[in-house]
Amino acid sequence: MRRRDFVAIAGASTAASLIAGPVFAQGELELITPGVLTSATEGGYPPFSMRTPGGELDGLEMRIMGEICRRLGLKYEPVIVKWESMLVGLQANQYDIVGNAMGITEERQKAVTFCDGWVETGAQVVVREGSDYSSADQLRGKKIGAIAASTFIPIVESLGGELRAYKGDIDGMQDLVNGNIDAVILEAIAANFAITKSKLPLRALPGLIDPAQLGWAVKKGKPNLVTAINETRAEMVAEGKVAELFDDIIGFDPSPKEPIRSIL
Questions:
Q1: Residue 24: pLDDT band by 50, 70, 90 thresholds?
Q2: Residue 53 burial (CB count, 10 A)
Q3: Which is nearest to 41 in space by CA: 107, 93, 85, 73?
Q4: What distance in Å separates the CA atoms of residue 38 and residue 44, rounded to the nearest whole number?
Q5: pTM value?
Q6: Summary mean pLDDT of the chain
Q7: For labeling, which of 46, 148, 179, 192 is most exposed (least CB within 10 Å)?
Q8: Residue 14 to residue 4: CA distance in whole angstroms
Q9: For residue 149, what pLDDT is reported?
Q10: Could you give the count of Cα atoms lying within 13 Å of 181 in the half-sphere of its Cβ?
Q11: Strand, helix or coil at 29?
């Protein structure tokens, strides 16, 4: 169903109280609670999700999701969830969407519907500053960290490394700084942001391993919600709004030129 097919004509006073753009018929967006988009997030995965000095949630994820909801006339409601539980909670209808940065894979596509890819990135190897490593090929037999239940686990195995699994990026990077592991596999944007922002004694090896796109996961059977989000985000990219929202965080728009499309 195209976006224009389920735009609702609302009264002027109602529209003005929500957004200046179109308002969608709440029942047609397949939301758990009409008018509210609940979105699972770690809340602590910079620069995608993080806390401001005042304690408010901010980040690439929050900004783009918040703007999409504003344009759709929805209330944006982040739900803090542990990474390893996100897809389980989605299937149990605990929230409408997983807004957390998640790699789009064939295996995950069997279980959920992904909105079009919104970030182009990849895995990157991070090592200690001053180490002799210049290539991932040098890490065979070395202790390599990766996030548990992530797509980075097979990369460690392919490099012939000894896996150390962590709950989050921060744990892995701290162990690397402390010398407990030799390297850690991280999402490139998050890795470089953390190293620069926190002035960590780490460096990323050049090049990406397993280039990927990140997407938002939705429970299967919600084509209207997925279509509405896809078309709204595409409009924002074309307008330059995404670049504007992300400018003071990472300085560029990571939107894919050829996004992986939703399978509806």
A1: low
A2: 6
A3: 85
A4: 17
A5: 0.79
A6: 90
A7: 179
A8: 19
A9: 87
A10: 26
A11: helix
List all residues 6 or more positions away from 170 whose beta carbon is below 8 Å from its beta carbon: 44, 194
Q: Give residue-wise pLDDT tens across range 206-229.
A: 989 989 999 999 999 999 999 999
Across 41-69, average pLDDT:
96
- What CA–CA distance (Å, rounded) separates 29 from 15? 17
Parse the chain into domains and list their residue ranges.
3-119+213-246, 122-211
Q: Which CATH superfamily is domain 3-119+213-246 in?
A: Periplasmic binding protein-like II (3.40.190.10)
- Protein fold of 122-211: D-Maltodextrin-Binding Protein; domain 2 (3.40.190)
Contact call for residues 249 and 59 (beta carbons, < 8 A): yes
Task: For 140-169, give the DSSP string.
Answer: TTSEEEEETTSTTHHHHHHTT-EEEEESSH
Q: Per residue in 139-159, is it b (16+ CB within 10 Å) or e — as a string?
A: beebbbbbbeebbbeebbeeb
